[in-house]
């Protein structure tokens, strides 16, 4: 049983330290990115007599509170992850739900030669498990640590643990929303605000310089605003200064660059803009697919600018950033949610989206940043915050333009503070832009054009024979699939990537909400015809510009107007 990898396959994830431990035929290996206690927190970590060893990727935000309940134990380091071995001594394998954080870990108990593996609730950290013909079990943060050693490997399911004692998986995370029954808690704006502020502030735990990713959209702007308010009291501020660094990436003149700078000026952050060209992105696609380990079109589109930005951020000496993923899933913020027929369908779709996050946005945020030894923290996916939002009566989340309620209205209203504004009004009520759209619409169009130059009609006609599983339906998808198969030719690898019909990032089930969507199967937000202000149809791909908004108050009604395109 080997944790992560013995070698250099994952060294990009942890450039600060390489640790390895052997006991019999068990090996633990770790590549460390030091965020908390960089001086003494090298791994593997051990209990007092070194009978229990642990390798961990992630952060345990409540480690100080947990230490108070472990007064009879002596800790070797100040690492937040040092509590894991001691919790195991006290509670056996039934301690994972006590951890407030994101994590993937392997724990080896040398007293009986057993081991356990666990992954965080939503799958913010990436993790895979594989099996060798010789009976070995392999665990790795990325596929590339397994695919040459294992006969079969797969995604380690979020919210689960694996025990060598039972030889199988056990679900440790089972919140009330998981069964998809419709909740009924009334919406209380201040409760949502407090829960999210708590989620952000606990993630400011760091002994190294950090910043925020700031696209100028609602989600990243709220993360930046709360961080800026609370930064002064953190350890990092005392050591590195109290001015927040913010980062944005986009094509020249993109929506994100303009909005990001405006929010940065409002918050007083030290703002860093990174520009890239369509050709820069195209040149990086192969590296992106290698690092992110997917052929999913949406993920590759969004991962590429994030990948390019992460390289720049790391060059500035920053090791950790806060990011805004997850909001659209828990609040129903994607534009296709405008078409949800009722609150039950709305809620069940949010549940499906959260459960699938580890295959999409979490995968992107984790691996696109880890490619350069940068860590992304995701406040919207805080366990307690998710529980707060997912317990709300979904009627309050539904999009009702006739009542002035646009997507994510409950989040916008929670932070609409007249006395001490978090954000300018027009930013607080800015329409949703998917990351791959917001960096510049010509980015996606450029990718499609490049793919068309490399994939011809004859290749597409044989796609079902070449790729019978998740057959690519577009030339762009075929192009990505060719690259992926070159890096990861095993059947196990292709099975780790999700498939199915989607429009504007919907699940296959939600495609049924609008009959017109079946003719326009594209993950871009612009595919939400009748919703996006720059929508396009499936035949012409002609962008449509609606009349400019005169006031913020115009926005809810404008978003509800249908768009008919004639060419």
From TrEMBL:
<dbReference type="Pfam" id="PF00733">
    <property type="entry name" value="Asn_synthase"/>
</dbReference>
<keyword id="KW-0061">Asparagine biosynthesis</keyword>
<feature type="binding site">
    <location>
        <begin position="323"/>
        <end position="324"/>
    </location>
    <ligand>
        <name>ATP</name>
    </ligand>
</feature>
<feature type="binding site">
    <location>
        <position position="213"/>
    </location>
    <ligand>
        <name>ATP</name>
    </ligand>
</feature>
<feature type="binding site">
    <location>
        <position position="80"/>
    </location>
    <ligand>
        <name>L-glutamine</name>
    </ligand>
</feature>
<dbReference type="InterPro" id="IPR029055">
    <property type="entry name" value="Ntn_hydrolases_N"/>
</dbReference>
<dbReference type="InterPro" id="IPR006426">
    <property type="entry name" value="Asn_synth_AEB"/>
</dbReference>
<keyword id="KW-0547">Nucleotide-binding</keyword>
<dbReference type="InterPro" id="IPR017932">
    <property type="entry name" value="GATase_2_dom"/>
</dbReference>
<protein>
    <recommendedName>
        <fullName>Asparagine synthetase [glutamine-hydrolyzing]</fullName>
        <ecNumber>6.3.5.4</ecNumber>
    </recommendedName>
</protein>
<keyword id="KW-0028">Amino-acid biosynthesis</keyword>
<dbReference type="GO" id="GO:0005829">
    <property type="term" value="C:cytosol"/>
</dbReference>
<comment type="pathway">
    <text>Amino-acid biosynthesis; L-asparagine biosynthesis; L-asparagine from L-aspartate (L-Gln route): step 1/1.</text>
</comment>
<feature type="site" description="Important for beta-aspartyl-AMP intermediate formation">
    <location>
        <position position="325"/>
    </location>
</feature>
<dbReference type="Pfam" id="PF13537">
    <property type="entry name" value="GATase_7"/>
</dbReference>
<dbReference type="InterPro" id="IPR050795">
    <property type="entry name" value="Asn_Synthetase"/>
</dbReference>
<dbReference type="GO" id="GO:0005524">
    <property type="term" value="F:ATP binding"/>
</dbReference>
<dbReference type="InterPro" id="IPR001962">
    <property type="entry name" value="Asn_synthase"/>
</dbReference>
<feature type="domain" description="Glutamine amidotransferase type-2">
    <location>
        <begin position="1"/>
        <end position="167"/>
    </location>
</feature>
<dbReference type="GO" id="GO:0004066">
    <property type="term" value="F:asparagine synthase (glutamine-hydrolyzing) activity"/>
</dbReference>
<dbReference type="InterPro" id="IPR033738">
    <property type="entry name" value="AsnB_N"/>
</dbReference>
<dbReference type="GO" id="GO:0006529">
    <property type="term" value="P:asparagine biosynthetic process"/>
</dbReference>
<keyword id="KW-0315">Glutamine amidotransferase</keyword>
<dbReference type="GO" id="GO:0006950">
    <property type="term" value="P:response to stress"/>
</dbReference>
<dbReference type="InterPro" id="IPR014729">
    <property type="entry name" value="Rossmann-like_a/b/a_fold"/>
</dbReference>
<keyword id="KW-0436">Ligase</keyword>
<keyword id="KW-0067">ATP-binding</keyword>
<feature type="binding site">
    <location>
        <position position="249"/>
    </location>
    <ligand>
        <name>ATP</name>
    </ligand>
</feature>
